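User: Before I run my own analysis I want an independent prediction to cross-check against. Here's the chain; please return only the structure tokens and, at the end, one sentence I can use as a sanity check.
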Amino acid sequence: MIFALAKTSYLTEQDKVLYGVMFLAGELYETWHHRYEVNNLGSYNFADFRRFVMDAVEDPTNCIITMTM
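Assistant: Structure tokens:
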């Protein structure tokens, strides 16, 4: 919703990813920062970030089952 309300503040995929990263905590925060660098996201986009969070919340196998039902 924030991206719809503040379109001019989040123009790039990287802006959206960095906004989402602010809300990570604990082990999820550490895992993300171990894999990715804030200053060098390359082609990493918000869809990739959503997938990362979804996989952390739900077992990837169960996630596929949930999405296909």
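Sanity check: Helices lie at 2-5, 13-21, 26-35, 46-57, 60-68.
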